[in-house]
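User: I'm curious what two different proteins look like when written out as structure tokens. Can you demonstrate?

Assistant: Sure. I'll show them one after the other, since each token string lines up with its own sequence. Here's the first protein:
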Amino acid sequence: MLGISNIFNKDYPEFWKKYTDSFKFKAKKYVVLSIETSGIDPDRDVIMAIAATSVIGNRIIIKDSFEIFIQRNHDQINPIVDSFSINSEQRISEQEAIVTLLEYLSNSIIIGHRINFDIEMLDKCLSRMKLGKIRNEAFDIEAMYNKLKETNEKNYSLEEMGNGLKMQLSNRNSVADDAYSIALLFLKLKEKLGIE
């Protein structure tokens, strides 16, 4: 029979220990996150692609960015939804994608558009890996925009926020394009709201 100390001293993988240990220190950067999913139901849908880029100070660090695509079984994908034209050789497993993301994230502050959904999807992946939940602080640019406009929880697309802030966003053809657009919007909102 297992002793009580064995329950609390679960042997977590090294990447998870490193991720959780990083929160002993103050975050040094923002990470802008964009996730493409097969739908909007966290219990049924899956993550298809993840893109992220770093923001340090008032600069987007393009060279510190990544985009990954996740290999799925055919029964996990709605063929109409799976619009990515990436060969299966260029995709990695869900577990590899999560490890890559957590190593990149560390203790940084996450920025996203409707970020609660993205975090919920990531938490589902972590649950399948028998790990805890995402621990990072997160800012949602839609909530920031609502605060700026003094509206009450209105939904805005990236294009609507760009137009409202008089910003020209690039054509959105990929999850990486979305991450870059979110980063541009975040920097403008951060400046207008006086966030350091």
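Here's a second, unrelated protein for contrast:
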Amino acid sequence: MLLSRHQVLARRERDPERLERSAYLLLSRIDTQGPMSIGQLAEAFGLDTSTVNRQTAALLRCGLAERVACPDGGMARKLRITAEGGRRLAGDREVNQSCLARVVADWSPEEVRELEDVLIRLNRSAEALEGRYWPRTEEDDTPSP
């Protein structure tokens, strides 16, 4: 919690271009899964559709996402990341990774791997309890060597 809180507070102070937490999470999910409807996003995060509607409206206003026809031919419109949204998401990910790299800079490679393994297990256990799983590729299913 401390690490997460520190990153959230520091992000806006250092660079107002950084994404809000909700924007980062929504864009990350769409980036991982592909275009999604508001209903799909609400279900994925266990949120009310009105909450997700407000959050996605902000993404649309900022040009970080756009509405597109359902690729499967359905009636629902879906949200997909724009080039600007992808650029900003990639920038935030890079900053987050560099911040974490600084935190563990004096750790041994074995300690970093151990932390990674335990965090993967923690995330998977939380997902199992909630019954909501983050989509992953096969290569994401195993801890890094």
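A detail about the second structure: The mean pLDDT is 85.
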